[in-house]
Amino acid sequence: MDGAAAPGQVSGRFAARRRAWEDEHLSPLAARSYPAQRAVDEPDCGLRTPLQRDRDRIVHCKAFRRLKHKTQVFVAPEGDHYRTRMTHTLEVTQIARTVARALGLNEDLTEAVGLAHDLGHPPFGHIGEAVLDACMAARFGSGFRHYEHSLRVVDVLEKDGRGLNLSDDVRDGILGHSGRAEPPRTLEGNIVRIVDRIAYINHDIDDAIRAGVLRETDLPRDAIAVLGDTGSHRIDALVHDLVEHSADAGAIVQGAEAGAAMDELRSFMFDRVYLGERQRGEHVKIDRLLHTLFDHYVEDPSRLPDGGGAAGADLGQRIIDYVAGMTDRYCVRIFEQLTIPESFAL
For residues 50 and 66, is the Cβ–Cβ distance under 8 A? Predict the structure, then answer.
């Protein structure tokens, strides 16, 4: 049965009804769901907007499923309550949708960008990203940035090289979600860009305290006085601040006091956690692991399964496509196969 060729009563009216709802209820500054701008034109779904369809493609793709076994901050943590890249993604998306709804912006676009923003993150979190960037610079004179690779995942690598054919606004939000990239062109994309930072700073504090790396009393007092003494209080304060200042500005902005307090917390986390003594020890191990794998494939590209990535890519890109797609545990397993004699493997 072809719903596009022979639409029913609901699907035949869905797009017109949704357009009318957006015109009535969304802010004039909000991105609209129609028409979909895609690299390859395709008929719209009769029961979902193009942005809902993008969201569904993201949730059903292989790269999204792998996020549950990728590090957020703590490598291979012992315990069930630490964040993974998957739970980080879900927290960002939930907070971002709250902001979008409060501002009358397009929740479906915000959700799609939030769900896809970290699909290109390699194993072992930001440590893994730094190591792969160094590998690419040393061997090929280029680099690796996870936000660029997230776009490559949805454009090229998913669906056996066909990509997900996402809408241009979603693609733009994915590429622009990092503070190192140019900001997205939509307000919805800019929500994810700021909320990503709000989420990871506060849930990383929670995980660091759980891991015994920090104590509540270690946190900078001035920032805590402004934002609150628990993660939920800080997120609530930052979200209210973001919504109120953005509504006044017609852009996605933080207030000066809240923004400064969040920057203070972020600097503190880099000093004490992300680049702290415990993580530096892990960095040495991850550096050796990823360099070993990277050099292994450089020396003999035939070892790359299925060529490593999309057909026609150069060797460095094919290695990155393969290694960056690994989960933490799969990466460790391949390293063990290369370095530990079978008779000693458990």
Answer: no
d(CA 108, CA 260): 30
Mean pLDDT score, 257-284? 89
Report pLDDT for 59: 98
Residues 122-147: b if buried by 16+ CB within 10 A, e if exposed: bbbbbbbbbbbbbbbeeebeeebbbb
CATH number of 12-344: 1.10.3210.10
Per-residue model confidence (pLDDT) at position 343? 55
Check: CB of residue 34 under 8 Å from CB of residue 26.
no
State the alpha helices, DSSP H only, in the chain.
9-25, 50-59, 62-66, 85-102, 107-116, 125-140, 146-152, 168-175, 187-210, 221-227, 231-249, 256-269, 277-299, 315-324, 328-339
The span from the CA of 54 to the CA of 106, in Å, is: 13
Asked whether 63 and 119 are in contact (CB, 8 A), the reply is: yes
CA gap 19, 35 in Å, rounded: 10
Residue 20's CB is within 10 A of a number of other CB atoms, namely: 11
Residue 334: which residues within 8 A CB-CB, separation 6 or more? 293, 326
- Please state, in angstroms and rounded to a whole number, the distance separating the CA atoms of residues 264 and 294: 36
Three-state DSSP class for residue 19:
helix
- Is the pTM above the cut of 0.85? yes
Residue 151 · residue 173 · CB < 8 Å = no
- The pLDDT tens digits for 41-64 are 999 999 999 999 999 999 999 999
Which residue is listed with tokens 């054919």?
165
Percentage of the chain modeled with pLDDT above 70: 95
